[in-house]
Amino acid sequence: MATATANNYACSLLQVGTLELEEEADSDTWYKGLAVLSPDKVMVVDFSKSNLSLHIIPYGELLAVSDRLKYPQDICICNVHDNEIQIAVSLFNAKIEILSIKSTGQTSAITRGRTLDVTTGFDKCRGVKYLNEKLLISGQKRNSICWGIVSFKDGHVDVVHKICEWAGYSSSYLSINPRDDSMVYISCQADQYNTGIHVFRNSEREFLYQHDELKFPRGVTVDTQGFVFVCNEKPALIHQLTEKGQLMTIYREEIPSNLLAIFWENKQGHLYVTSSRSKVITIFRPTYSRQQDPDIPLEILRMDEASLQIYKEALLDGKEKTYDIRVMVVGHYGVGKTALTKRLLGEEVDIFERKSTEGIDVHVDCCRISLDTWEWSAQNKEADKYSRLQRLVTFLKHKSTLDISPEGHSEIIYQRETTPVINVRTNIEESVTDNEDVSTSSEPYTKQETKHRSGDNVLRQGIKRKYSSESVERDSMIELLQLVNENAAKLEKIRLEAALLTVWDFAGQYVFYTTHQTFLTSRAIYLLVTDLSQHLSDIVIDNECFFDIDGIKLCKVHEFVEVWLNSIHSIAPFPAVDIPPVILVGTHLDKIPQGSRQSVVDRSFQQIRSILKDQPSRFHLTNDDFAIDNTKRDPRLEDLKRKIIDLARKQPHWGQEVPTRWLLLEQAIMTLKASGTKVVDLSVVRELNQRGSVPIETEKELDLFLRFQHEKGIIIYFSAKRLNKKIVLDPEWLIDALKSLITAKAFIYKNNPAIIEKWEEFEKNGKLSPDLIDAVWTKETNVDFYENKEHILQLMTQLNIIVMPRSFNDSGDEVKMETFYIAPCMLRQATPKEVICPELSPHMGSTSVLCCMFTEKFLPSPIFHRLLAACMVRWPVAKKESEHLIFCGCSVFDLDRSHRLILHLKNHCIFVRIIRIGIRLTTPISKLCIEVREHIDKTLSHIIGYLASNLHFQWFLQCPRSEIECLESMIPALEIKENAELMCKFHGNHAIESYELCKFWYENEEVRAAIDPENPIPCYPLELEDKRPSDQQLSRLSLRIGREFHTLGLELGISGAEIQQIQIENPFVTTQCLMILLKWAHRNLSQATFRNLSMALWKVGADSEILKNLDEADNSMSCLSPQALDIRPTEQELKKISEHVGKELLHLAVELGIPLSRIEQIRLEHRQSVARQSLEILFAWRKRNAGQATFRTLERVFRRLHMDVNILNQVLPT
């Protein structure tokens, strides 16, 4: 049973049975269309046999068949009248056949009706579905994939909707949502931009679902709940989507291979699926149940099973709902983000101040929002103290069974053995007191305490406590309640039931974007701020960008809007949803004349939405836009606040339950952070935890708590041993450390002219020297950075913000570490053309150009920066003379002494090329190239998983005739591996040999895995593709095939009776195989080619690699004396040899060149004696070859057949 969890559902796909269909003829089946007429009848269309057949469930017995359908594609049920059912079958030649099935008793008959010609709208038909006297059809028209609506009555084409342009092979099937028939889902296989599930509503495309594991989408169906199921042929997977196209889960287990069609049967709630070359239909039952813990945070669900279990156990000890609102204010430079932030927080704004945010300004828990009145109010320490007090009371009530009434006589019995005794009064007082500075404690425990508290054991001993003095504990609880009662008025006044608001104000300068991506989260509401007084095509001045190899450029307003929206979309938890939501906010409303204000505002917001209309990021935009005047207290701010609250209440993390003791420690950490502490040792957090009233109990749980806080963006903490000794309480502090370096220009020029040159090198080439770091961080305002320099640099290295590169020494015989760091985000110098496209000399060889292209047509620059950093860790950076070859969007690496890797970025594409330099050897080594591709693939996947989990990439290879950056000439690697030859449309339709493009980057196994059955890649030289294999080659092949020969024979057209006769006449498997191959070759002279043989081998699951090297000679040293090699064997010597031939007789005859007719004659004449047959074969060989019939030839043949060559030595005269 396949199971998965998605969207608060536990989804399962249980296989409930299989149905093997009875067929008229025993041959391949391609059930492309499938429909269940009733719980006892199923109907399929078979593409390979061009027929439609009706079968009984559950036995598969054939009831009726209708043949001579021209390549049927799909089938649907149209009308049901008593005992008659009308059905429609789509044909490949743009025809729709209408048939009727009539049932009488136990018999059924299929009659042909009218044929609808839809060639006015389609050239080819694929899918067909019926809806209210209309047929919905998907297919192709000229060079486009499309779908349309035709009349069921006469086939009139009402309308055709274009999906995409595509002239090659395509597959497109469709389904209708039974809950909302305005929604149509079309599975489409085309190029990398359009392969997926296209979701249409009212004939308008709403969304395209794409996934790395949906490269071959086939059938699609929708169940009664609106869930969409899609088949992927290779690998065999079933994707389940919501009706909006959001991925719920992917089923992998117990899924049959090579999926084709899928059908949802309503009455029993079953899924039926078919596979190519299989007569078996597999039946599944989907089941859904709400998760037991729907409120577990996504950050925890993404962790391993052990972490999830620890979290669940912590919830059992007491939990509390949390209501946190995080607002991220983003936008380009100078649009008024900081002023807007201050207005939201009720702070005064100096309208004449022009100072911009540098880095990120974080306002943590700056507002409390009442869950009753939704009013915003400033946060205060009183609220923090008493909220902890209230939580502690709730926690202890949950944990205890104490009767605290004055007459009560019972004991506190804790529910878990690991719960410690708590001195209630003392710890309560400590928990609401802020005076003690725990950060001054360097020794968190005494040695005796550490013995019990550290390690994987519980920090406080797990012992079940029953108290000898009930009255003492009872009095303590009464004391606690008295303390609560004494402060009841304060608790009520503070309104403890409130949401806490945190606002992040992101700098608009591009140089800070590389750190911004680290802190983007789906747990937020984004305000995307634009300046209403600017036109979208205006250039944003004073904000230099450096995306790729072009270096510094100035961008337009709309480009920044797209960058921010795409960056937000890249971290979305699921595709096709509005999480996280983005509110468009326009500022500088005061600069627009009053008379045209509303029209300008409407036009500005409409233009933004128009630019984004074809991008998936548009789904994040909310329906309401806001125009704000930051120069005053604009009443529209209150509308914006209400919108923020409304969106926050709809977020999946709203009201999520978190362990109470985690909240207590989180609040304690926030208190410590509020005191100005930026970074602490792990021992301090341990001490803080121990001093709390209810501490986290184990080291593993404490580590999970810290990792959870890190994932939420509250702290920076890594579990790795070299990084877990310190915890950054304020993520903004780490950004400030980098900001202090980036913005130090004025300080350096004024106070430290000795290192001006090093600053300029940092600004130009991203080289960050230790001297520059020390000069900036010893500045009085940066002393915290200097004191924690080692940890900050380790964190920046861990986050791939900076990296210490390596390079070969001057002699080129060893790799050394450099003495400086590289900050990829600071690389501004454009890449010289000769670096990307070096002129190849006779002593240089190059691979084809490999390209990693992102499906979303967007790549956040931090992704490439981190990829460069990861590559610098693995490979030395190349040099030209003394200069490192590192530029904006490009770096060159020395893979070894002769291979160089050129890695560069242009737009949303990463280009990879390897050059080998040598005198005699210039062809790049394939194994090394494959290692590079795999490393880049793995590294990118890891970076994307951490920073932008909603991004997807695909590998392409470039036509050899193209300029290096020509994206139009890119061909998907998967498409190349599926075809032996391709046509390049960009360069006048010239042919490309796939092997030449793939040979450096992909192993044979990978290529073979993607072979299409209709067009396999040969595992032999292409010049042999249409050549006939010789009898000798077939002989050698037969020794490699094994017991698949029976199935292979059927595939090659040899009948079962013929194969049976061959088996009777030939007792040995290898001989049987050879006879089948020879019969096929001599019967089908024109069709007996390597191509067709390769296809047959692939179809029966044999390794077509066995076709390689059939003519390879055995170069082993001869065991015969040189004098004996050219001697012709005598008849007596041949007689002795014939006694040892045995089962290799037929192979020996073929290898010696005896015609098949003569072999069969000899076997017929001497059927009683194998030795006699062998002797006659040898005599025939000696007679036919005269001077060539030597011991040298016999030795070569014996070696090919793996026969004992020593036999020849034994027969030779001494």
Automatic annotation (TrEMBL):
<dbReference type="InterPro" id="IPR011029">
    <property type="entry name" value="DEATH-like_dom_sf"/>
</dbReference>
<keyword id="KW-0067">ATP-binding</keyword>
<dbReference type="Pfam" id="PF16095">
    <property type="entry name" value="COR-A"/>
</dbReference>
<dbReference type="InterPro" id="IPR020859">
    <property type="entry name" value="ROC"/>
</dbReference>
<dbReference type="GO" id="GO:0016301">
    <property type="term" value="F:kinase activity"/>
</dbReference>
<keyword id="KW-0808">Transferase</keyword>
<dbReference type="InterPro" id="IPR000488">
    <property type="entry name" value="Death_dom"/>
</dbReference>
<feature type="domain" description="Death">
    <location>
        <begin position="1030"/>
        <end position="1101"/>
    </location>
</feature>
<dbReference type="GO" id="GO:0005524">
    <property type="term" value="F:ATP binding"/>
</dbReference>
<feature type="region of interest" description="Disordered">
    <location>
        <begin position="432"/>
        <end position="454"/>
    </location>
</feature>
<dbReference type="InterPro" id="IPR036388">
    <property type="entry name" value="WH-like_DNA-bd_sf"/>
</dbReference>
<dbReference type="Pfam" id="PF08477">
    <property type="entry name" value="Roc"/>
</dbReference>
<keyword id="KW-0418">Kinase</keyword>
<dbReference type="InterPro" id="IPR011042">
    <property type="entry name" value="6-blade_b-propeller_TolB-like"/>
</dbReference>
<dbReference type="InterPro" id="IPR027417">
    <property type="entry name" value="P-loop_NTPase"/>
</dbReference>
<feature type="domain" description="Roc">
    <location>
        <begin position="318"/>
        <end position="651"/>
    </location>
</feature>
<keyword id="KW-0677">Repeat</keyword>
<protein>
    <recommendedName>
        <fullName>non-specific serine/threonine protein kinase</fullName>
        <ecNumber>2.7.11.1</ecNumber>
    </recommendedName>
</protein>
<dbReference type="GO" id="GO:0007165">
    <property type="term" value="P:signal transduction"/>
</dbReference>
<dbReference type="Pfam" id="PF00531">
    <property type="entry name" value="Death"/>
</dbReference>
<dbReference type="InterPro" id="IPR039788">
    <property type="entry name" value="NOL4/NOL4L"/>
</dbReference>
<dbReference type="InterPro" id="IPR011044">
    <property type="entry name" value="Quino_amine_DH_bsu"/>
</dbReference>
<dbReference type="InterPro" id="IPR032171">
    <property type="entry name" value="COR-A"/>
</dbReference>
<feature type="domain" description="Death">
    <location>
        <begin position="1130"/>
        <end position="1203"/>
    </location>
</feature>
<keyword id="KW-0547">Nucleotide-binding</keyword>
